[in-house]
Amino acid sequence: RGTALQPLFKMSYSCSKVGDPRPGQPYTGGNFCAFLPDNKEGQKTAMLLKKAFEHGLTFQIKSCNGEERVTWGLIPHKTSWGGGKARNGYPDAQYLREVCTVL
């Protein structure tokens, strides 16, 4: 399994912008952690995920019970080492290929 890279994203409280569900409304942030294998493919994927983050593609704001919250966007992330594809975890032999295609 090897060592894991663990990109950790911390999203603060802020106000949503044009294009979000309710522009100008405050939203709740959170901590988000994703796992990649520490190998050449994993490091390449980490660089692509960083670019996606810088372009605002990693997260989205959704309304949940009348509250705006930051959630994962459409780019798939592995949020655990176990549980397989069904639980956003490993093992998933196709993940790196699939996420690079999306990116």
TrEMBL record:
Gene Ontology BP term (one): protein ubiquitination
Keyword terms: Cytoplasm, Ligase, Metal-binding, Transferase, Zinc, Zinc-finger
Cited InterPro entries: Deltex_C (IPR039396), Deltex_C_sf (IPR039399), Deltex_fam (IPR039398)
Deltex C-terminal domain mapped to chain residues: 9-100
UniProt protein name: E3 ubiquitin-protein ligase
One Pfam family cited in the UniProt record for this chain: DTC
Pathway: Protein modification; protein ubiquitination
EC number of this enzyme: 2.3.2.27
UniProt keyword Lipid metabolism, yes or no: no
Family: Belongs to the Deltex family.
Organism of this sequence: Furnarius figulus
GO cellular component: cytoplasm
Enzyme's top EC category: transferase
Localization: Cytoplasm
Gene Ontology terms, MF aspect: ligase activity; ubiquitin protein ligase activity; zinc ion binding
